[in-house]
Amino acid sequence: MSNQATSPTPAVAEIQARFSAALHNTSRAWRQAIDQRLKDLGVSQAAWMTIAMVAKAATPPSQKQLADLLGVEGPTIVAMIDRLVASNLVMRVASPHDRRVKLIELTDAGRAMYAQVKERADAFRATLLDGVDAVQLLAAATLLEQLQAAIGEDA
User: Fold this and answer.
1) Residue 79 sits in which domain range?
2) Is 124 exposed, middle or buried (0-12, 13-18, 19+ CB in 10 A)?
3) What average pLDDT does the chain have?
4) Confidence (pLDDT) at 155
5) CATH of the domain at 110
6) Distance, CA of 134 to chain centre
7) What is the value of pTM for the model shown?
């Protein structure tokens, strides 16, 4: 991906706008569909996304790292973590390297919640993508990963 923008032809600009809208709308619809499947668990979209990020992290993330991963501000993640701590789904642990830094870990209840979230999200993904050509799926995943990397370079 080039960092230099060139003016696309009107036809290409229309395709780019269509792609951008489809990407945004699909991402939102995907999260809403999973959220609907998780309603009976009593966790909000923000809560299950936070739990999932902690569960997927190689090491317990700090509050700041978690905020960055979720694309939210510090006060927002602090309030979310407070709610998850009160629900006994996560706990704050002092960093062994810097006591001022709080790391976020799942509790046993948080791990159980994540297992349920993952099971339902995996089932939704499998059903939705069943029958999608593997070559198309790989091409789409590759394109999205390239775009994510290019956005990261510009940030």
Assistant:
1) 10-154
2) middle
3) 92
4) 62
5) 1.10.10.10
6) 23
7) 0.79
